[in-house]
Amino acid sequence: MISWVLSNHWYTCYNIDMYIRTTVRKNKNETQTCYVQLAHNTWNPETRRSEVQVLYNFGRAENVDRAGLERLARSICRYLGPDELLRFEARRNYGTEFGFESSKPFGGAWVLQGLWKHLGVDRILTQLLKERKFQSPVERTIFALVANRALAPMSKRAVEEWVAQDVYIPDLPEIPLHHLYRAMDFLLEAEESLQYQVFCQVSHLFNLEVDLLYFDTTSTYFEIETEDDEGLRRKGHSKDSRPDLPQAVIGLAVTRDGIPVRCWVWPGNTADMSVVQEVKKDLVGWKLGRVITVLDRGMASEENLRYLQRAGGHYIAGERMRAGKNTVEKALSHPGRFKTVRDNLEVKEIVIGDGEASTRYVLVRNPEEAEWDKAKREETLDKLKLELARIGELNGAPHTKAVCSIIAHPTYGRYLKTDKRGQPRIDKDKIKAEERLDGKYLLRTSDDTLAPEDVALGYKQLLQVEDAFRTLKSTLELRPDHPSGGTRHRLEDRIRAHVLLCWLALLLVRIAENQTGQTWRTIRAHLQRMHVGEFQFPTARVHQRTETEPDQHQLFKALKIPQPPKILNITTSDCRIT
């Protein structure tokens, strides 16, 4: 047995061999000293009797840290699970006159709700709902859907059971499925106003720098074989390596801090370059002031770049260095020294042309990436030599097929040429051309006021968008649920509403990560250990949370969210006290 002395009461928690015991020793001056020890009984085969073995001596009873013993007890209960911790605390507070009904994770929902209210999303939704006559709690339902994406992504049908059985959300004990769909319909109706008002609120609260926005797209596929004749689910260039399935294209604009400010959804056959004008138009409508849009190489068409300069806008865009463009070749061969800047980058400013016809470039080199590119190329060439030797041993049709395949290979073909007989050979001139590009990338900008360092670092931060997409796809499981039933129009609405839910969840997740300096995966793991237990007493039902752990306390402090009350609500036979 192990028993704990707490507030002058003994509580027996677990049937195991260890226990706390006290021993008394007489002193020479006839006084007595009491010691507290952790002990267990062992069997002595020689004496054929049980003997006490002291495992740890806590010292004199008057010096024992009782609060420390209590923390140890809670730690043991926590190891065994939140249910045991809640039972332990209930025994300490209420004695034994209660029935333990259940426990549910609570910390994650509490923090998400704190951020939700701090950003004013609840107030924005309430204002947008004012003219509607919904009988269901639409704002609470939308929050539950967003919290589910951040905490335990699942289908909308499963969210109904999740709210009822697997999470404690204040003021939302349950939520019928038709309320979920009704809330998603409203979310889509309020899309434009909601995104704008949330952005204004977030940029004001966090003093976001919105003069530099990063934009990129990704694709998300559907587990169906047939694409729509019209609508979102179309086949196109897949960034998930699933060109065989219909997909939708998702666009995301984020700040330099990784905060998502707006999202878009387009049909799956939409080309990246075709969406830039729509994005520019939408953001200009928000009156953001001076905006420099940062684009990846795939979107840097001349038409797009000219469009981005309208209304005083500017761009930073990556250039394709292997495209054979005359201006790019001039930029790459331009003389001059690189200047070292921070983040292990070297930059060289280049201007091609004169006057209004001039184009400003910044050539960026990363010495570490240059070494990596060199090593990767040498490894590729070694494999290529082995492959050419294998092809040389073939004859007839297999030989012809292998030659065509290796010449068309996206990596091997870069280093090959064909001789007079049409046989593949390694081209040394192509190897030298590739060496010239090691660790480099070329940027083009329309803003003459930006320092070369700012251009380079600004483009490097485009990784924030890629990181946001990784969070959407992995942590928040962006890919919409398998559609079943309903008309095409309704399914398209559901897809768009689903993306909006993911955007709101990503917003909360990114703010939590930025303010704590921890990944959401770590934050979520700490918070979800805080549970709420439901206890039934003869005259009342009580919802009580577990004690705040040190990690949770630090998270609450960093996020400036108060700890939840210990007793969340008490329901008696005739009233409810919260």
UniProtKB/TrEMBL annotation:
- GO BP annotations, alphabetical order: DNA transposition
* Record-annotated Transposase IS4-like domain positions: 255-498
Molecular-function GO terms, alphabetical: DNA binding; transposase activity
Pfam families annotated for this entry? DDE_Tnp_1
Q: Which PANTHER family match?
A: PTHR34614, TRANSPOSASE IS4-LIKE DOMAIN-CONTAINING PROTEIN
Q: Specify the protein name.
A: Transposase
